[in-house]
Write a structure and sequence with these properties.
CATH topology: Beta Polymerase, domain 2
Radius of gyration: 21 Å
Structural class: alpha+beta
Helix content: 40-55%
Number of domains: 1
Largest sheet: 9 strands, mixed
Shape: globular
Distance between the termini: 23 Å
Number of helices: 9
Length: 359
Amino acid sequence: MIAAQAKLVYHLNKYYNEKCQARKAAIAKTIREVCKVVSDVLKEVEVQEPRFISSLNEIDSRFEGLEVISPTEFEVVLYLNQMGVFNFVDDGSLPGCAVLKLSDGRKRSMSLWVEFITASGYLSARKIRSRFQTLVAQAVDKCSYRDVVKMVADTSEVKLRIRDRYIVQITPAFKCTGIWPRSAAHWPLPHIPWPGPNRVAEVKAEGFNLLSKECYSLSGKQSSAESDAWVLQFAEAENRLLLGGCRKKCLSVLKTLRDRHLELPGQPLNNYHMKTLVSYECEKHPRESDWDESCLGDRLNGILLQLISCLQCRRCPHYFLPNLDLFQGKPHTALENAAKQTWRLAREILTNPKSLEKL
């Protein structure tokens, strides 16, 4: 048993050093190329409208606010200033979303975003995004990369197609630090010793973002109040949770397997599903020793089996907001197809670790 475990870990490490590192290098190169274009577009936007200041800065060779959705798809979060005159309200009526309401006694004119405040005093995510979309469309025509960048039509999101190869969504957002949403108040679960009080404090200090984008749970049935809502996102908090042991290595292997074998019709799976399942696996295996390098094979198998279960049940709860289903709106046939393909992959890796050389 121990020999089989060691053999699997050996082949997984080899896979990580060859395939995962190659994937990382290729994506890093793409990010540089894409960020040059996006920065140029945002510079033009800022000239037209100084309230939209580019926050796409490179810090320690990472671009702040950039998320990799797949090797050809990215999201850039554009942090806006001056949320201060609004109260953050998440009463659970919109899973995964919250609203920003003008604080009592504050005049609209005190807000930097005065013309985007609705009659009932809410700062409208949709109105801000609509204005931003118009500005980006104008900037695309003026910027120095105009030959290689186009707006993606037929969407209320702000999406660019670059060199006909890459899609980048630019999402206006507010950064919320020093508060934690009520809809995530159950976390951490009291009976689970992971992640421990110090890490919990760090994660909560990271806070969360409020994004102006279409909400998972509302697609197709948005009333005007709902389209004014902002989507909760916890990227920095989630990254902080996955520090230590072989957690990030495990996620890297899962992302690489997804890119190579689970990029399926109907797009049932993305990197974020993988990241979510690693967080749940951390709860199931709360001891640091469970994430020792020698346990990489066990953890990977556990996550693949959990993924199959989620796909079969057609439900993948968001880690911090379990009322939000990350498979909402995905075609059932796509989820079934992904379950079968994940099962083939898991069986192959478990019964014949050497097969990783070909995967």
